[in-house]
Design brief:
heterodimer, A: mainly alpha, 7 helices, 0% strand, B: mainly alpha, 76% helix
């Protein structure tokens, strides 16, 4: 089953590139939802069946696959944005950067003092690569909604690392973290809506009134 | 009993959400906050029994933070009734709900012995405060909210990564990963140094951005500047203390690991000095008094970080300063909120002669300024003096010299903004606003100011013992 999880992680990394290369918001949101659902399935492959596992898997899939995409789509519809235009760095350069970061992630993971049973698995490189992708989206895109997506991808990257350590993150903590993420995205969605009403754009490079003279 | 600390505010939040009347709803804040303070005081003076393996337990460090938070919130809760009476033009439902949820989350932070749960609680405080910064509903406040939400969320996410590294270090060492604080303290010596190092860096960056240590402080002036005074007080005195408690927990682990302590301390001193320097630079010629207070907050988290980095004798001062800074910031933010209401602006061009126009609020603001810059007889003087003298006893002359230099520059910079604000004569072409000083808006910060004087002149023995117990948890045991 671990081998299957490894293959799913390859898919996760491919989705990273899809997000880096696409300008259509609806498509990127679908991609991040797919990534979330895949990550929700993986714990089910790693651990023996139990009630807790079922609940946590179901709630991750529900949150990342249904609720968060709904909130994001809602924000997109209300703010009427279809595409990310004029990112700070173009799509091709970010794709290349993404590829470089993924390569670095693999090299770096080789050098880490991992536990022997984790050494040949994709979890750590996939985690670092996804994390870096999240950062790349956060820093290179201007639209508020793209930044939220970057944050989600970052969170997904951290989640992949957490898969190695389920016993340290008990059910309560896992559920709490998920709830925080949900409420966070909910609040961000509302804020985006207000930004678009106030500034008639969701371009965050417009947010620069507050600074020192 | 301890669970009530969390459940009581949550219940209050639910009731506040259900109350339809905009005038009645703010009453829920003192109704919950005052019993919460009483309960906190009771739990602080009764010795708590440690249950092995328990997640929620109030240790001396938690007690100190709980005291600072609960006292500040009680004062803010009473003040809120008076303040919100002036803000009837908009619904305060989200504000009351957010404040009470935040109180529950902050109480939970002080109780947590499981670092994962601690993380969840800190993240909850972040999210619950976001809508409150946006209370004024204008372009500036939405910008501040967005920056706060994004920077703090990403920062906290990095702290989670740091935690996972920490758990991974325990997994490498003995196969069952754990994030329970007592277990971590016990095992710290066995853990892999590489993972520990990485964990500490990420935890420091993560919680440091929440704390507002330079260079991660960029959201702070915006958020503090645009939030209502009431929310600013809780950001500067509540959330800062929660984030600092999280850093203290990490410090405890670095202490137990022995090998990592020096590294962690040096980073803390470095970031602390940088924070004070940044505050000194941006405090000069600051026209917006709420932003000035934000830089003062950056300065004081810098002082806390330096004290923690120096360790030993400074620890007592650090823990005392945690309480003093929170309460003094409360006085400053609440009185600045009053001044803002009365003048309809928060820049020094508009606000002049506050002592004439608003003798009480202006006086409180002036007294708060004198207290926060470390003058006797106020308690921040005692704690800052104790930190400085320990720096010199530890023979860190460069750190001590810079510390004093920055304090002097900050005092001058702050005085250049505050003195013209409170002295002089008010401009005659000001808009007429309906704000007048009255018992509910002036009384709470006044009480807080008296508490600061009390702690400065004659601190109660119970508190001193508590601070000593707390400092003992952070000292090297030989």
């Amino acid at each position: 089953m671990v081998a299957l999880a490894d293959q799913l992680l390859v898919l996760v990394m491919l989705i990273n590139f899809i997000m880096l290369g696409s300008s259509r918001m609806a498509f990127v949101i679908r991609a991040v939802a797919a990534q979330g659902v895949i990550l929700g399935i993986i714990p089910g492959l790693l651990h023996p069946f139990s009630g807790h596992l079922l609940i946590i898997t179901a709630s991750i899939i529900l949150a990342k696959g249904v609720v968060i995409p709904y909130l994001l789509n809602d924000a997109v519809r209300k703010a009427q944005i279809r595409r990310e235009v004029e990112p700070f760095i173009g799509y091709v350069p970010t794709l290349l950067l993404g590829a470089v970061f993924t390569a670095i992630a693999f090299v770096f993971a080789q050098k880490l003092p991992l536990a022997p049973e984790h050494r040949d698995l994709l979890f750590v490189p996939a985690s670092i690569a996804t994390l870096m992708t999240g950062f790349l989206i956060l820093t290179t895109r201007k639209k508020a909604i793209s930044q939220v997506i970057g944050y989600l991808v970052l969170e997904n990257g951290i989640f992949i690392f957490g898969l190695l350590l389920t016993e340290a993150m008990p059910f309560m903590v896992e559920a709490g973290a998920l709830l925080d993420l949900l409420v966070g995205i909910f609040v961000m969605g509302i804020v985006i809506n207000h930004i678009s009403r106030e500034f008639s754009t969701v371009d965050t490079s417009q947010l620069q009134t507050l600074r020192e003279e | 009993m301890t669970y009530l600390l969390v459940l009581l505010p949550l219940l209050g939040a639910l009731i506040a959400w259900l109350i339809p009347d905009n005038r009645l709803r703010p009453l829920m804040l003192p109704v919950i906050a005052l019993p919460h303070l009483a309960l906190s005081l009771y739990l602080i003076v009764t010795p708590s029994i440690k249950v092995p393996g328990s997640w929620l337990w109030l240790d001396p460090l938690g007690k100190i933070t709980l005291l600072a938070i609960s006292a500040l919130f009680a004062v803010c809760g009473v003040y809120a009734v008076g303040y919100l009476a002036y803000r009837q033009e908009r619904s305060n439902r989200v504000l009351c709900l957010g404040l009470l949820v935040c109180l529950a989350a902050m109480s939970l932070v002080t109780l947590c012995q499981h670092l994962g749960l601690l993380w969840v609680a800190v993240e909850t405080t972040t999210v619950s405060m976001a809508p409150l910064i946006y209370f004024n509903r204008n372009a500036r406040s939405i910008e501040a909210t967005w920056k706060y939400l994004l920077i703090c969320s990403v920062g906290i996410a990095l702290a989670l990564l740091g935690l996972l590294f920490l758990a991974y270090a325990t997994h490498v060492a003995h196969q069952d990963a754990t994030l329970l604080l007592p277990d971590l303290l016990e095992d710290a010596k066995l853990l892999n140094r590489g993972w520990l190092h990485a964990a500490f860096i990420f935890l420091l960056v993560g919680y440091g951005s929440k704390l507002g240590l330079a260079p991660l402080h960029t959201w702070k002036p915006d958020a503090y500047g645009e939030a209502p005074g009431l929310v600013g007080a809780l950001l500067a005195g509540g959330l800062v203390n929660c984030a600092f408690l999280a850093i203290l927990r990490v410090y405890q682990i670095s202490l137990a690991s022995v090998t990592e302590l020096l590294f962690f301390q040096q980073v803390l001193v470095g970031l602390g000095l940088l924070s004070m320097a940044v505050a000194a630079i941006f405090m000069a010629r600051q026209h917006d008094f709420k932003r000035m207070l934000a830089y003062s907050s950056v300065e004081h988290v810098g002082i806390l970080a330096i004290g923690l980095g120096i360790g030993k004798g400074a620890l007592f001062g650090v823990l005392f300063h945690l309480i003093n800074n929170g309460l003094t910031k409360g006085v400053l933010f609440l009185s600045s909120g009053n001044i803002h209401r009365s003048y309809g602006g928060k820049t020094t061009e508009i606000v002049q002669g506050a002592l004439t126009r608003l003798p009480w609020s202006g006086g409180l603001f002036l007294a708060g300024f004198i207290a926060i810059t470390g003058s006797p007889p106020f308690s921040p003087f005692v704690s800052e003096f104790s930190i400085i003298s320990s720096i010199f006893t530890e023979r860190q002359y460069l750190v001590g010299g810079l510390f004093l230099l920055f304090l002097a520059v900050i005092f001058i910079g702050m005085a250049l903004t505050v003195l013209p604000m409170v002295m002089g004569t008010p401009r005659t072409d000001l808009e007429v606003t309906d704000y007048r000083d009255q018992l509910l808006t002036v009384g709470p910060p006044l009480v807080m100011l008296l508490v600061i004087v009390w702690l400065g002149v004659w601190p109660p023995d119970v508190l001193l013992q508590l601070l000593k117990d707390g400092a003992a948890m952070l000292e090297v045991r030989s």
